[in-house]
Amino acid sequence: MKDVSQKPDSLRVARATATLHAPAHCIELLRSGDTEKGDPLKTARVAGILAAKRTDELIPLCHPLPIHRAEVTYELAQTSVRVIAEVQTIGPTGVEMEALTAASLAALTLYDMLKPYAEPDELHIEDCRLERKTGGKSHYKRQLSVPRSAAVVVLSDTVASGAKPDTAGAWVRDALIAANFGPVEYAVIADDAAILGDLLGSLIDAGTAIIVTVGGTGLGPRDITVDTVKPMLEVEIPGIMEAARAFGQQRMPFAMLSRGVAGYVRDSLLVTFPGSRGGAGESLAATLPGLIHLLETGRAGARHPGGYGEAT
Predict the structure, then answer these.
(1) CA 179 → CA 8, 30, 289, 292, 297, distances in Å?
(2) What's the whole-model pTM score?
């Protein structure tokens, strides 16, 4: 089964339909609700809703999802009934299969309740299809339409000294490249406020679209990233790192200790990720759709022509 643990939750809705063809007198039975097994439309509606909620039990590779809303409705014609199933969840993966399962099971239930009143060749189900879905990667982009410049700055005394290799920053760099950022600069420096300030200043002067620092967001005496970056921010965007911390906290209990901040300095977006491979990866997974949306729809080259903190 595919690992979806690094996907952020989002509102996801899917609509599927299936059509049962039947003789006209069977359609009249649906309208009246009078069969020997009870009201077919009401029974099939319950069957479809239950099927949506238990799709992971019926289809082995489906992920279990909390179904927040499932509904089955109908469109009756002279010799057919169209089953419409709409399913909604907030989760890391879509509800297409839940909607398709609901439509299929509701149509099968109608078939079962009408079969005593028709010949076998008079009943058939066809055209079970997904009509619409929203949410997830098809709705919230995880890749830039047009490349934009980026920089990844790793802060670590031990990595800068060569005592251990960098994994977190390199992973973020590669993930940004995969998301169509480019060129992507990459630097490893010691936990030094003066060095970090100078490097950020040069990247901002160069007009780098997004600068990601990795490391130095904790509470140790050498964790200087946040204390250096926060005074530079002209427009702080608290929600970026709030989303990262909330996402991380669902996966390990220490994410709440990160002090990361984010915001604009002139036209450069700065975000500060934790220095662990897991923390950096989870932070990017949680924020990438929002970062891409911000970069593609937000300001570009229009604010703060002067230095840090200068208003237009």
Answers:
(1) 16, 51, 10, 9, 16
(2) 0.68
